Amino acid sequence: MNVITIKINGIDYNLKGEENEEYLNEIASYVDKRLKALMDNNKKLSVSSASILTAMNVVDDVFKTQSKLLSLTENISKLEQRELELTEQLEVLKKQLIHMENYNYELKNKIILLESETHDKIDEEEVIELKNQNKTLEENSKGYLKENRELKVNNKELKFQLQSAKYKLIDMQHRLLENQIDLVKIKKEKNPLIADKVK
């Protein structure tokens, strides 16, 4: 447990905390700035009133940050779900594409076989039908490939959005933690059992 002396509004306080000294000083500096800003804006405010208003402002920040954090978490969850859906859709398309390519290969072989038969009468209608089927399959394959490419692009964009949202979530968590610590420091300032005023 670290014990340090901090200064808020020109008054020294002994502060105990598990965090390192640099961090505790940073929190104290933040509270000091918020308190002084309130008192500078309203010279008639007492230290007690300004402390209460500072606490209210910090709590307001905490609540708003929690709300943003919740919204961001929900957004990340939706992005992850959409990414999962796109991945599954990609897998289905890949299987369909493989099936179409195999079928296309079979048709080509049939066409080659029919065209190479010189002893038997070639059923020209069957050849034409097979060629038409082959052409249709090639067009379908191109469509699947295009859709596959589009899904990959969408999936990449979703992954980028998801990563950005995760970074924002981490940032919001840090800000929330800072706001909660600010609130604790203000409470300690007002409660002599927690923070002893240095004589």
UniProtKB/TrEMBL annotation:
Keywords: Cell cycle, Cell division, Coiled coil, Cytoplasm, Septation. GO terms for biological process: division septum assembly; FtsZ-dependent cytokinesis; septin ring assembly. It is found in: Cytoplasm. InterPro entries: Bac_CellDiv_Activator, Cell_div_ZapA-like, Cell_div_ZapA-like_sf. One of its GO terms (cellular component) is cytosol. Residues 69-96, 120-168 form a coiled coil. PANTHER family: CELL DIVISION PROTEIN ZAPA (PTHR34981:SF1). This is Cell division protein ZapA. It comes from Clostridium algidicarnis DSM 15099. The lineage of its organism: Bacteria, Bacillati, Bacillota, Clostridia, Eubacteriales.
